[in-house]
Amino acid sequence: MKSERLQLLKTSILTSIIATGCLILGVLFASAKGWTPAALAGMLQNAGSRDGSVGGWIMPASLPLTVDDRGTSPFVAVADRLLPSVVHIKVTSNLKQNPGDWFGFGPEMFGIPDDRFHQDLEKMSSSGTGFIIDNEGYILTNNHVIENASELTVVLSDKREVKGEVIGTDPDTDVAVVRIDAKHAAGRAAPLGNSDEIRVGDWAIALGNPYGLEQSLTVGVISGTGRANLNIAGGAPVFQNFIQTDAAINFGNSGGPLVNINGQVMAINTAINTQAQGIGFAIPINMAKKVYQDLRERGAVVRGYLGMVPRELTAEMKKALDLDSDVRGVFVDSVQEDGPAAAGDLQAGDVVQDWGGHSVMDVADFRMQVAQTAPGEKVKARILRDGDAKTLTFVLTDRATAMKVESVRPGAAPEAVDPDLLGLEVATADENLIRRFRLDEALLKRNGGVVITAIRRDSPARGRLNVGDVIFRLGKTPVRNAKEYAAAEKELTKAKSAVLVHIIREKRTTIEAIDLGD
Hints:
Elements: H1 2-33, H2 37-46, H3 74-82, E1 86-93, E2 110-111, E3 118-119, E4 124-132, E5 138-142, H4 143-146, E6 149-155, E7 161-163, E8 165-170, E9 175-179, E10 203-208, E11 216-227, E12 242-245, E13 257-259, E14 265-273, E15 280-284, H5 285-297, E16 304-305, E17 308-312, H6 315-320, E18 330-335, H7 340-343, E19 351-355, E20 358-359, H8 363-371, E21 378-385, E22 388-395, E23 397-398, E24 416-417, E25 424-428, H9 431-437, H10 441-447, E26 450-455, E27 470-474, E28 477-478, H11 482-490, E29 498-505, E30 508-515
Antiparallel strand pairs: 1-4, 1-6, 2-14, 3-4, 4-5, 5-9, 6-7, 8-9, 10-11, 10-13, 11-12, 12-15, 13-14, 14-15, 16-23, 17-18, 18-19, 19-20, 19-21, 21-22, 24-25, 25-26, 26-27, 27-28, 27-29, 29-30
């Protein structure tokens, strides 16, 4: 028994010695291979050289965001790489403006975040941000930062102030290009990424000069993509495809870069929601790249022009057109006479589903696709008309030189009808109604129609039609006067759950879908 206990003790001691030896050897081996926590952090920091990431930072999906053994976060490397490219743009303008308009005061929800609050009787000073994108001294910023500039000073990251020159501006996207002498830009260019790769939840790092606090950095995530139809105080750009972020963007950040964790610029900080916190908007860098190339090479942006007004394809419109609820596309609200759309046989009431082989998702998407089609280029579009699919061909013109206005004389004697199913009181236009509602005489002469003079409280058209609108078609039935309206209105029955009403509103024609109920 005693010998057995002695043997067991010897075995335990030997096992402990072997285990301790293995542990020591393992630590030595890991250190030699660089697998300690500090070395792993270093590997994380330096991994980017093989896959093209900038600043050496890459965040593999299998590894969490981490710090090194000194507590340094990866955002430090992004700041070290990007801040030298970020500039403070100071602008002096001879223009008188109401500074409150730029802060989103009033009915607009979204404000442009710059510092237009230093104003005197003759000159107004403003400031914003920009970033150097190549060694030749070109800088990307917002149009609203340098708009109407009479003097422009660029403050570099080392506090040097140099003269800036406006190369070109594009109000339709709110992008502008500024240039400084190339000797001030050497080694400062910010790397540009691919904004099409952005995903909701990605890291978002905003750099700029909020409230004049130069070289500031804030961190958040990408909150959303494809934001459009923003009513921005100070003037909304026509083409909107904003990236939304909760990284803090404040007045003065306009024109600064929004970058990813690899230190690549993904967007240009542009606007904020002034009634909320953590809702900022930035222009995708892929959109800005094309604008930059056009402004640099041509001095202006070249875009295709179709000559029609698209509308969102609402549930009411789908019902009125007898379309399935899952049909996607845009509704053709009106077509400009003598424009490319009319020449290609596009008609009001059509639904455009495909443009040049690409599906049309909504109005913002369609406008972007048309704008990116070169003038003179032939493009095929698939449409729905009266439930049938058609393929039309268009040759676009240059958007910058398109559009014209007509004018002419009025028509007809007054005549009124009482409200019925639509709950509208209408009258054939006379000179008094034309003056009262400032109606477009050319459109009246071309289309005829009746003026809405009152809308019944229980009318299904309330909120869709307005007093002063001119109805010239109900569904597929033309309406040139009050008698024709009364006859067309009587044809409407509860069997028809919705109807398209073609109207003249202000200086253009448009179409509203009215839900008549089940």
